[in-house]
């Protein structure tokens, strides 16, 4: 008996059926695969496995099934399960055959060490990266990451952000103007902030704003399509071959670019027919506009045309990176990562802050007074560096960052050249006595932390679910720097957020402008705490699926 396979040429009507694979061969392969999986699971829990001494559930140590169940079947809920594991097993737990998770901020600098101490990203974590597979964000190897990051870093240095700060000022005012002119119509606050952060990101990085703030409504924007791209990523981690489908659809392989150029119009029409307007716009941006812009920048540089303004592409193309790092496909991947990393993070942080300020009038009043005093009365916003000196404004932003988490799901690192030694204390459930804990995490194994867990460590952040900006200030109204160690919103170390300066510039300027100009006229609309509360993650934190978003109205 043999299984039947179909070979298709371009027209389905001309499919040819052929008998190719004997059934017995299929069963043999299947049996071998099952035996292999059992042997692997047995090895993973054997006393010889280097992580055998790390506490945690046996099934998680043996297989990836628990992670699969919570992240793929229950969707984005492994972080919740890991939190329970810490309550049961202590600050260091083994969450999968090759990965350890830590819930102690004192270990942050060991896990997320700086440049000279090598830290890879675990392959399992980036296997589903799809469209951003060639960006720094998904680069596994430490040295390759350093090379790519160094080329990008100067573009995001504080001095560069200050040079381009006027762009953010202009867009902040556009955001406020647009909200204020839509009196009486409820709107999705996160979509509005997403339009703002996308315009900033594209203006700052690509040299031209995508104009989401100048279009008539808040739609289209990239919020939903970016989440749609992220949705299958948990699945790709386990079945990476599925990713190639997405990669092919998104156009990051050169052969696809060729195909696209040949049949672009036909594809564009068929894509547009099948997907929503904003998804079609994102696909077009990433498969046509960005590659074209990179190609044009390349041609300009080759022909000696000097551009008035440097873009991120110009900066990378003129950098010391080797030629194979400067291909259109790789730079498109980097641009996609910037779009994903630099837009929804900012807009979600602002949404969380907005919710809390609009539900806490005294807090809003205190902030309004502080920001109001910093104004010189000219109608112009103070500079980012002036606003940074306002203690309460800074405290509100830090508290907003804490409860918006940044990347909420765990992000792990692999120390390749040294074993990590953890020493700490833990009070087991139901006990009054703290016990000391010591573990060696051998080199070559992943160890990570999750902001959605660390930010609720009651020792560092008492009453951690409440929005309390004051916790960031000491009695002299100075920022409590030691608390920042427990803030993982931007991650830490050599792979921490590269866009942190730009993010802070956006947050300070937009929050100050919204406080002075918009919040006095803005009310929440059918929005409760459930709409901003962490429920599960899709890298970014997500509220309950039934949430209709953070909505407000200007009266
Ligand atoms: C509130 C705003 C932001 C938050 C909370 C945030 C958070 C983060 C976090 C947690 C990481 C580390 C991810 C990991 O370890 O896997 C990261 C990396 C990154 N972020 Fe941000 N981000 C923000 C804004 C931005 C902006 C505005 C940009 C650029 C326009 C940006 C670009 C990047 C890039 C390129 C990386 C990868 C860095 C690397 O792998 O070396 N982010 N971000």
UniProtKB/TrEMBL annotation:
InterPro entries: Cyt_P450, Cyt_P450_CS, Cyt_P450_E_grp-I, Cyt_P450_sf, Cytochrome_P450_monoxygenase. The chain crosses the membrane at residues 20-39, 233-253. The keyword Iron applies. Keywords: Heme, Iron, Membrane, Metal-binding, Monooxygenase, Oxidoreductase, Transmembrane, Transmembrane helix. Pfam families: p450. GO terms for molecular function: heme binding; iron ion binding; monooxygenase activity; oxidoreductase activity, acting on paired donors, with incorporation or reduction of molecular oxygen. Its cofactor is heme. Heme binds at residue 497. Belongs to the cytochrome P450 family. This is Cytochrome P450. It comes from Melanomma pulvis-pyrius CBS 109.77.
């Amino acid at each position: 008996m043999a299984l039947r396979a179909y070979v298709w040429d371009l027209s389905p009507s001309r499919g040819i059926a052929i008998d190719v694979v004997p059934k017995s061969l299929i069963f043999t392969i299947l049996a071998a695969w099952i035996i292999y999986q059992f042997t692997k699971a047995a090895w993973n829990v054997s006393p010889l496995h280097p992580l055998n001494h790390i506490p945690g559930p046996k099934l998680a140590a043996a297989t990836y099934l628990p992670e699969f169940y919570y992240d793929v079947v229950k969707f984005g809920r492994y972080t919740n399960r890991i939190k329970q594991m810490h309550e049961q097993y202590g600050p260091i737990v083994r969450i999968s055959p090759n990965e350890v998770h830590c819930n102690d901020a004192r270990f942050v600098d060991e896990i997320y060490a700086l440049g000279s101490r090598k830290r890879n990203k675990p392959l399992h974590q980036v296997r589903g990266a799809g469209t951003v597979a060639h960006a720094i964000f998904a680069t596994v190897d430490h040295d390759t990451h350093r090379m790519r990051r160094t080329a990008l870093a100067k573009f995001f240095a504080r001095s560069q952000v200050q040079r381009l700060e006027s762009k953010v000022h202009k867009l902040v005012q556009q955001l406020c103007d647009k909200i204020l002119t839509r009196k009486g119509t409820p709107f999705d606050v996160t979509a509005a902030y997403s339009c703002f952060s996308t315009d900033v990101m594209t203006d700052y990085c690509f040299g031209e704003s995508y104009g989401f703030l100048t279009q008539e409504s808040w739609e289209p924007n990239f919020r939903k399509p970016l989440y749609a791209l992220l949705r299958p990523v948990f699945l790709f981690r386990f079945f990476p071959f599925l990713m190639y489908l997405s990669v092919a659809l998104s156009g990051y392989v050169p052969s696809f670019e060729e195909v696209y150029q040949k049949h672009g119009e036909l594809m564009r029409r068929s894509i547009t027919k099948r997907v929503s307007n904003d998804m079609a716009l994102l696909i077009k941006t990433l498969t046509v506009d960005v590659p074209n812009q990179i190609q044009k920048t390349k041609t300009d540089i080759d022909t000696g045309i000097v551009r008035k303004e440097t873009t991120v592409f110009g900066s990378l193309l003129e950098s010391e990176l080797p030629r194979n790092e400067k291909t259109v496909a790789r730079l498109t991947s980097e641009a996609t990562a910037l779009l994903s990393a630099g837009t929804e993070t900012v807009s979600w942080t602002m949404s969380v802050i907005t919710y809390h300020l609009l539900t806490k009038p005294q807090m809003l009043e205190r902030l309004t007074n502080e920001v109001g005093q910093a104004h010189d009365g000219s109608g112009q916003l103070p500079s980012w560096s002036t606003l940074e000196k306002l203690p309460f404004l800074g405290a509100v932003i830090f508290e907003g960052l804490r409860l918006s988490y940044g990347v909420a799901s765990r992000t792990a690192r692999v120390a390749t050249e040294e074993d990590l030694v953890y020493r700490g204390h833990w009070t087991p459930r139901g006990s009054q006595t703290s016990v000391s804990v010591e573990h060696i995490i051998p080199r070559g194994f992943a160890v990570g932390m999750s902001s959605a867990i660390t930010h609720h460590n009651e020792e560092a952040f008492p009453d951690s679910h409440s929005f309390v900006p004051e916790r960031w200030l000491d009695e002299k109204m100075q920022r409590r720097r030691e608390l920042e160690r427990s803030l993982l919103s931007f991650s830490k170390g050599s792979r921490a957020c590269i866009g942190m300066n730009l993010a802070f510039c956006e947050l300070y300027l937009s929050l100050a402008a919204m406080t002075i100009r918009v919040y006095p006229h803005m009310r929440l609309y059918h929005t409760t705490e459930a709409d901003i509360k962490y429920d599960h993650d899709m890298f970014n934190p997500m509220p309950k699926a039934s949430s209709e978003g953070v909505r407000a109205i200007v009266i």
